[in-house]
Amino acid sequence: MAKPTILILIGHYLPGTLTGGPVRSVANLVDWLGDEFDFRILTADRDQGDSAPYPQLGAGEWYSVGKAHVRYLTPAERQLFALGAVLRATPHDVLIVESVLARTSIFALLLRRLGRLRDVPILITPRGHLGQGALQQKSAKKTLFLRAVRLLGLYRGLEWCATSDGERAEIVEQFGQGEAPRIHVIPNLPARAVSTGSVTRPPKRAGALRLIFLSRISRKKNLHFALEALRGLTGEIEFDVYGSLEDAAYWAECQAISASLPAHIRVRYQGVAPFDGAVEVLAGYHLFYL
């Protein structure tokens, strides 16, 4: 018996890692459920912010990535009607649209409204884009967009996947109580190494603490608050920051705060953690501070 096919539309995917959480969430989903479902993923042919595509990609080719098959779309294929052609040409039983505000997500919902998609259930995952911190960034533009899509009914009749009760409340706040029956609260699946208990923390001694921040460096992630919160601590504090430098001006603010902290609080930027090694990196600390 053929496995049900789940098609996922996501802005960026492996080997790209710069968009952080959504890539990891989808990769964990595929890793856990890829034996029961046939996962097909449509994504950009380059990582976020990159001008060049990944090397050695063939046009229209599907590539095995873990337990999924991935097709990397050129910028031309990510335009409205070209994207629609790819979506219609890809057999699937369910379509998962990652993110609310990503351009390809908006295009997919416009195509649905125009009757240009397959007649299958569509599940949309906000991925934090409806949170207060996210909406405060470019707030005027996002407020106008959400008002327009509500008037157009782009999200009407969709199924929603919220990863927490808080995200469920954000969906209701933006799209109304009428959406509540179609919201499914499904927490993100952890990496297998976390679930199997193979991760152990380092020994802890009194008066010393190792902290890690592992996320994109952007204002919505609130790194500046974490740094300021360290100021009143005593003892030997190590705070290592991992993540892509998404916002250079914001990172400069965080560096200024770090420089003003007492000498017993050491803040170090450690670059971007390797995707497959993030769990092992986290294991070297006492506390994940996000």
Question: Could you walk me through the main structural features you see in this protein, from its secondary elements to its overall organization?
Answer:
The N and C termini lie far apart (44 Å). Helix 8 (223-230) packs parallel to helix 9 (248-259). This protein is α/β, with parallel strands linked by helices. It has ten helices and twelve strands. The longest helix has 14 residues, at 139-152.
* Separate helix tally: 10
> Could you name the ranges where pLDDT drops below 50 across 5 or more consecutive residues?
none
Structural class: alpha/beta
Report the principal-axis shape: globular
Oligomeric state of the chains present here:
single chain
Radius of gyration: 21 Å
Straight-line N-to-C gap:
44 Å
Main sheet makeup? 8 strands, mixed
Mean pLDDT score, rounded?
90
Residue fraction in strands: 15-25%
The strand count comes to 12
| Neighbour order of strands in the largest sheet | 3-4-2-1-5-6-7-8
**Which percent bin holds the helix content?**
25-40%
Write down the secondary-structure element order: EHEEEHEHEHHEHEHEHEHEHE
Essential attributes:
290 residues, alpha/beta, 12 strands
Helix and strand layout, with pairings?
Elements: E1 5-9, H1 21-33, E2 38-44, E3 63-65, E4 68-73, H2 80-89, E5 94-98, H3 103-113, E6 122-125, H4 132-136, H5 139-152, E7 159-162, H6 165-175, E8 183-185, H7 192-195, E9 208-214, H8 223-230, E10 236-242, H9 248-259, E11 265-269, H10 278-282, E12 287-288
Parallel strand pairs: 1-2, 1-5, 2-4, 5-6, 6-7, 7-8, 9-10, 9-12, 10-11
Antiparallel strand pairs: 3-4
Helix pairs in contact: 2-3, 8-9
